[in-house]
Amino acid sequence: MARVSRKNKAQAILEPIEHVYNTAIYIRLSIEDSGTNSSETIETQQYMVEQFVNAQKDMKLYSLYQDNGFTGTNFQRPAFEQMMDDVRDRKIDCIVVKDLSRFGRNYIETGYYLEKIFPFLNVRFVAITDNYDTLKNSSSDDMVASLKNIVNSLVAKDISHKSATVLHQKQQNGEYIGAFAPYGYMKNPDKKNHLMIDPVTAPIVKEIFKWKIEGIGYILIARKLNEMGIPSPSVYNYQNSRYKAKKIPTGKATMWQGQMVKQIINNFTYTGNVTQGKTVESLCNGLPLTKKDKKQYIVVYGTHEAIIDEATFRRLGNTIDEVAKKRKANSEKYPFTENIFKGKVFCDECGQKMIRYKNAKKSAKTRYVFLCNQYAHNLQLSKCSKKCLGEPELINAILLSLRAQVELTFSLEDKLKKLKSTKKYIAKQKKIKTDLVNTEKLITKNLLLCTALFENYTDGTIQLVEYNRLKSDYLKQAEELEEAKNRLLKAQVLDGKILSPQNEWIKAFRGQKDTTVLSREFIELMIDKIIVSGYNDVEIVWKFADELAILTEFVGGAA
Questions:
Q1: What is the domain-level CATH number for residue 127?
Q2: Among residues 301, 322, 343, which one ends one of the domains?
Q3: Pick the residue with more confidence: 70 or 382?
Q4: What CA–CA distance (Å, rounded) separates 87 from 128?
Q5: 59 and 199: one domain?
Q6: Least buried of 16, 21, 199, 479, by fewest C-beta within 10 Å?
Q7: Do 409 and 535 sit in the same domain of this protein?
């Protein structure tokens, strides 16, 4: 048996660590974890990576970031985005994952992070089972990592293709592959891809069709259901433990909406013929969710018991189509204008977006108004007050507020210029610049002292105890100097970007001096959101409000 050199062992124990990395553990699983004990559960990934990090003397765990149920074919994952924010804030300088596929399966984007972003941000990256460590790897290791990323990407595409093929075949066979049975049905416990009548909700579906045949609108049907106290589909599924994640439905899902009723009325599956393949999406190829034409639906006849007979369904569908055609023809008689406020107007009570409604009158005049969807569907049952905000009134309110903001901007800019020309302010900025130069010199000196200290220790000039004591002092001093430098840099940034004509608020509003007509581009550029409360009280939340607050505080405080 080979002997271990005592000299080398002692040197390994005493060897000082030059840098301790603030380390992030990142774990990801593409399928919602079911709590099994397989090697690919979130828990086993976490355990494995934590054991690795805890065993490294040059790593200190900063935080764990977990994306459970998110695909690796893109980087739109909440925990990943939070981790990258912390990287950019310099809270993290090392990331550890189980393997490269946990980080990402898109080889182009993964390679970009490994080869460009992380080196630029000076971040160390470790993939444990791939033996990949950017601190220790050679160029050949980088090549191997690139090849593994390509393989991971191909594996993801292969899995996606195979899954899609299997699901398509099931659809062709008439097997229902949706996560939840359509309202009115339930999945057969002995044959999960087969639908069977839900005795509780099927009568309600029949009532919905009956009401629609009688000519009642979708919203009015939804209102009737809510008034009758019938749980919405989401609430019913939750009450019957049909959701894996036991989250209580919130927002619009808690009550019947016209859109829910419309989906039931238009679903051919209620005739006993399973109808699927209505949308297409490919995460691997970057194809977004897209609706398919009705002619492309996959319909298999006679797969389960019908709730509504096919002849009635088709007759109702034809009637609805005729009404829709007439409504469209009637609507086209009146001028259409773009909804420049799309996605910007919110109800204060329910927090949901208000819908724009076109009110056409026989006098050939149209008037667009914004309504609270919750109130429209539920009236007295809704917690929201009645709102009916006219678009012309909203435009006037915004133009009035805009004029006031423009006047405020020019006033603040004038005051800012005067204050920045004072001797006191100029002297303060000069001092910041001088202090910054001096601080950087001290940081350089501190670094040289640390280097010399290590050399003194390695050549035996000082002992380990003395080395550790002095090193601790130098590190503390380095930390204080970095904090001081950051404060000075922030002061410079504040002066350069916020307390100057380059202030985003000033730049934005100075250019709106002559605006008298609103456009979609203006709304996107200038307004964060519009909140409607009470009956029709309007609050406009302008963008760059933080810059305005700092500017106002500075000018007000200095005046």
A1: 3.40.50.1390
A2: 322
A3: 70
A4: 20
A5: no
A6: 199
A7: yes
Q: How far apart are CA 102 and CA 205, in angstroms?
A: 44
| pLDDT at residue 241, as a whole number | 83
Residues 60 and 21 sit within 8 Å (Cβ to Cβ): yes
Does one domain contain both 523 and 425?
yes
**H helix or E strand, kind and range, residue 281:** strand 279-282
For the stretch 203-258, pLDDT in tens is: 999 999 999 999 999 989 998 998 899 999 999 998 888 876 667 887 778 889 88
In a domain, 92, yes or no: yes
SS3 27: strand
pLDDT at 523 over 80: yes
Residue 33 has pLDDT above 50, yes or no: no
Q: Is the domain of 226 the same as that of 311?
A: yes
121-125, 163-167, 354-358, 517-521: least confident range:
163-167
Please report the DSSP string for 327-379 in residue order.
Answer: HHHHHTTS-----TTTTTEEETTT-PBPEEEEEE-TTS-EEEEEE-HHHHHHG
**Together in a domain, 108 and 177:** no
The answer to whether 269 touches 313, Cβ cutoff 8 Å, is no
CA 105 to chain centre: 19
Averaged pLDDT, 472-485: 88
Of the spans 2-11, 115-124, 380-389, 526-535, which averages the highest pLDDT? 526-535
pLDDT bracket for residue 139 (50, 70, 90)? low
Instruction: Answer whether 252's CB lies under 8 Å from 234's CB.
Output: no
Q: With 70 as the cut, is the pLDDT of residue 3 above it?
A: no
* 105, part of any domain: yes
Burial of 311 (0-12, 13-18, 19+ CB in 10 A): exposed
SS3 102: helix
Q: How many domains does the chain have?
A: 3
Q: Which domain holds residue 494?
A: 398-432+489-557
Local confidence band at 9 (pLDDT 50, 70, 90 cut-offs):
very low
Contacts of 281 (CB under 8 A, 6+ apart): 287, 288, 289, 290
Residue pair 532/345 in contact (Cβ under 8 Å)? The answer is yes
Check whether residue 178 and residue 105 sit in a common domain.
Answer: no
pLDDT digits (tens, 9 = 90+) for 192-207: 889 999 999 999 999 9
Residue 403 burial (10 A CB sphere; 0-12, 13-18, 19+): middle
Domain match, 403 and 284 both? no
Residue 158 lies in a domain: no
- The pTM assigned to this predicted structure is 0.54
Are residue 134 and residue 183 in the same domain, yes or no? no
Give the side-chain half-sphere CA count within 13 A for 23. Answer: 22
Beta bridge partners, 533, equal: 537
103, 73 Cβ separation under 8 angstroms: no
Question: Could you tell me if residue 462 is inside a domain?
Answer: no
Distances (CA, A) of 244 to 89, 237, 250, 300: 36, 10, 16, 28
